[in-house]
Every structure is written in C-alpha cells, then in structure tokens.
Design goal:
The protein is an alpha/beta fold and 510 residues long. It has 16 helices and 26 strands.
Length: 510
C-alpha cells in the first residue's frame, strides 16, 4: 500500500492571532448528529474572528466527494468546511476516504488517490492498519504546521467499543493532535441523556478526560424547556453544556449523506419546471443539484418512480459509484423505460458522469473495475460507448459550451473513458480549457457530461431550462457562490447565538 501525498503546498490565507488555540474535535454520540455542520460553523466563526482555521477528518465514508485544485479527491464535507474557512480544499484535510461500492466493499482513497477496494471485514481487522494510521497522522501534522486551529471531525459514535482497536478517526486522532473534544448529541432522535452519558461512561477514564464540553444539537421548541435538562446533564457528566442548538430550516448547507434525499422525493408542481433526479442506489455527488434546487423557476425532486419520471420536464441521471449495477437496477424497476418514453414525449434528459455513461449505447468493464458484470447495453440516447478503466480521473476544469460562450467551472471524478460508438460521430457538449472535448450533445433536450458542478454555472442552467422556460415566470435567483457564502455567515450567526463562544474560546486557550 503506497501512501502517496500531494506535493502542492497549502498556504494560510489569514494571519493567526498571537495566542495559538488548541485543536478541537466535534465527536458524536452517533452518526448524523450534526458534527459536519457544527464544524463548518466553527470554521466560519474562526475565520471571521481573525484566526486561520482548517478542517480535518482523518477518515470519511461517503459517496459525495470533491476534486481538489491539484486533481485529487476528498470528501465533500471537508471541501464545504474548507470553503467556510476561506480555503481551497486539500487532501490533508481528509487523507482517507472510503467510497462504498456495495454493502460489504469500499474503494479506499488515500491522500486523494484510490489504492484499491477493501472488504469491510478485512479493513476493520488489523491488516495495514498501522500504515493507514501513520498516513492520517502525517496529514494532520502537515496541516497543523500551516493553520491554527484545526477544526476536527470524528466519525459515527465516539464510543464504538468493538472498533476501538481499529479506530483512526475519533479518540486516537484527538489524542495524537492534543485536541479538546466536544461531544455532540442529537436531541431530535430522542434519548439524548442516555446517549451522551452512555458515550462518556464507555470511554476509558484517560479518554473521557479529553471531552471538555457537550453540545445538544437539533433542538425543537422553546429552549427554556430544556434548562433543567441542561443542568442535570452537566451534573451527571461533570462537564459543561456549551450550547443547545435549535434545528434550522432556513439555512442551506450542502448535505454529506444521501439519506436526506428521501425527503425530497415529491411529485411534480404546477407553474414550475419540474426536474426529476433519478434516485440511484449508489448515487454520488448529489450536491451537483443544490444550486438548481434553489432556482425559483424549478421544482426539483428525487425519484425512481416511473409515474413521477413521466411527469418531469427535465430528467437528470446523476453520478454513480456503481454505474453498471445501477443501470441494471434501472432496467429491472422500469425506470429506464420511463426515461426513454419521457424523452420521446418531449422531456429533456441530461446525464452527469455515471449518468452520462448510462445514456450511451454500451458500457464495458473488461478489467472488472466495478465488479463481475463485463458488458451491458446503455439507454442508447447518445451515440457513445464507455470502457471502464482502473485509473480514476480527478481534476478541476474550466470549460465553455462547444458552441462558444462564457467560461465555466467544474470538476471531474470518474473511472472510464467514453468515445463515439463505432461507425458514428458524436458532437461534444463542452470544450475544456486546452482544447479537450467533454460529453456528448444530440440536441437541446438530450446531452451528457463528465463535469460535476456544471449546474453551479448560471450559463449552463439557462441553456438547460430554455426549452421549458414558458412553464415558469419567476426570475433566476442570485448566483450560487454568493448564496453559498451568505449561508455560511448565517450558519455562523446561528452557532454564535446558541453556543457559549466565550467558554469555548476559554477551553481552547487553556
């Protein structure tokens, strides 16, 4: 296992205060308690207060990833946190990324590059574990030499006692960094007293001593009703409750996990351009659609229901970590036939990354890059064929539409090469800076691209919506970059309002 690393330096953009702060880790009582969002908020606050923060998560498991400026891959959550801190994302912020390919296996990405697929049982045994541990320690050390403080994020529960020996991301990482741990509990799911107290009681005393405070997250209702609960928790645990943070619905921060997409599976609406994103089992990089979802002209929903697909004006087939398996599933559940029928009846079909590959005539996997399926017919909407290759393409790109126009930005993360099918010609959708072509264009209602983030560019969105513009009267919203920066500021304000920042700074300064 070769622990390669980026050679591009990460330079701080802000001068730190005279007194350095301790690193801080948000660790959870479980998964999805809000650690990522709280870390994002603190990154923004520290930037606002004149420090030079940087995010760090030793190991992330997610299909939502991002290409760094030097063409390497990290988890999307750390890219979001870097943006909140005013930094370019770098692999040292997330040196180990696991991308699930099935219920049992994941692709292992180390320092931004895939090093192979691992069975979960083998991974959590001790084979190669110390090499991985050293790699994440080294990444942290490089990062902490350039930034202060480091805002760290744990994974899952702080107290997974069956995984304690193989843990790379929670207490062992905090111990290496000398970090103060803030334990985050989710009150919305219930049982917050038991989950907080139980997490602490399951830790050895020397590890429990690292936990310096508690944040209760996702509170609903009148905060005054929890005052007694806050006091009881402090007495029970012997450490302060730094804050009780209410759940919010009016601040938009990109999601890390696809679980939230289930709540966005709603049917078509009148007076809007209805955009259906096909809900693939192995959907990846679903943040591609966040900007489009904010457009007031658009109603965007996720579905694999054939009736809902048939009601869409625009159908987007998104990226996938297991393209062939998801293509097989689309055929099995009838969604493939619904997409083809909708195309014949006037709907737009756009494929992004794996979705682009699915729209072609054939996908071949002679090297078994994804699995045992070697060959499968695509949807036949584009005159292209794809061969899966062992090497992954990860890079940021600047591009223009093939017909000309303003320059746009995006990034590529894919395995496979797509070419015109034998005996055909294919018109590219885009021209990448330097002259390389991208994607395939059949007409204004049928196209595919490898570029993630393409829908963050207003010029491309206007092109996509143009054939259906008569269905919506609302004006376009503000550009997505401005919107995103405003959301980080709103999140920081929400955190400041409900967390005792004076006490937090006191803890980090001791």
């Amino acid at each position: 296992m070769e622990a390669t690393q980026s050679t591009q330096a990460v330079s701080p953009q802000y001068s730190p205060k005279e007194k350095a702060l301790h690193p801080v880790m948000f660790a959870g009582t479980g998964s999805d308690v809000g650690k990522s969002v709280l870390a994002t908020a603190l990154c923004r606050i520290l930037k606002q207060d004149g420090y030079s923060p940087a995010p760090f998560k030793a190991q992330n498991m997610a299909l939502n990833s991002f290409a760094t400026p030097d063409g390497l891959e990290i988890g999307r959550a750390q890219a979001v946190q870097a943006q909140a801190a005013g930094l370019e994302p770098h692999t040292d912020m997330n040196p180990l990324l696991l991308k699930p390919q099935s219920d049992h296996t994941s692709q292992v990405v180390l320092n931004g590059k895939p090093i192979g697929n691992r069975d979960a049982y083998d991974y959590f045994r001790k084979e190669g574990l110390e090499e991985l541990r050293q790699a994440v320690f080294d990444a942290y050390d490089r990062l902490s030499g350039r930034f202060n403080p480091i805002v760290m994020e744990g994974a899952g529960s702080l107290a997974e006692i069956n995984l304690r020996d193989s843990d790379l991301v929670n207490v062992p990482m905090a111990r290496h960094a000398g970090a103060d741990i803030i334990l985050v509990g989710d009150i919305d799911r219930g049982g917050v007293f038991a989950s907080v107290y139980g997490s602490l009681m399951l830790l050895p005393p020397e590890d429990c001593a690292l936990v310096k405070g508690i944040i209760i997250n996702k509170f609903r209702g009148d905060l005054r009703l929890f005052e007694d609960g806050r006091r009881m928790l402090e007495e029970l645990c012997g450490i302060p409750v730094l804050g009780v943070v209410p759940v919010f619905t009016d601040i938009h921060i990109e999601e890390e996990d696809s679980v939230a997409l289930e709540s966005k599976s709603t049917a078509a609406e009148r007076g809007k351009i209805n955009v259906a994103v096909v809900l693939l089992r192995h959907i990846s990089n679903f943040t591609d659609f966040d900007a489009l979802e904010r457009d007031p002209r658009v109603h965007l929903f996720y579905t694999n229901n054939t009736d809902e697909i048939s009601k869409a004006d625009i159908i987007i087939i998104p990226g996938s970590k297991s393209t062939l398996a998801d293509l097989y599933e689309l055929r099995r559940n009838g969604a493939a036939q619904a997409i083809l029928r909708a195309r014949r009846e006037g709907a737009t079909v756009l494929g992004i990354c794996g979705g682009y590959q699915m729209m072609g005539r054939m996908i071949c996997d002679p090297h078994h890059t994804e699995g045992e399926i070697e060959r499968m017919p695509g949807l036949g909407l584009l005159p292209v064929e794809t061969e899966m290759l062992p090497e992954k393409v990860t890079r940021q790109v600047r591009f223009t539409a093939a017909g000309g126009g303003e320059q746009m930005n995006g990034y590529e993360i894919h395995m496979g090469e797509t070419k015109p099918a034998e005996g055909t010609t294919a018109t590219p959708l885009n021209i990448i800076e330097g002259g390389q072509s991208d994607g395939c264009y059949v007409d204004e209602k049928c196209m595919g691209t490898y570029i993630h983030g393409i829908l963050d560019n207003p010029a491309f969105v206007e092109r996509l919506l143009a054939p259906h513009a008569a269905k919506a009267s609302d004006a376009p919203t503000e550009d997505y970059h401005t919107f995103r920066e405003r959301q980080y500021d709103l999140l920081a304000s929400h955190f400041r309002q409900h967390v005792d920042m004076d006490l937090l700074y006191k803890i980090l300064s001791r």
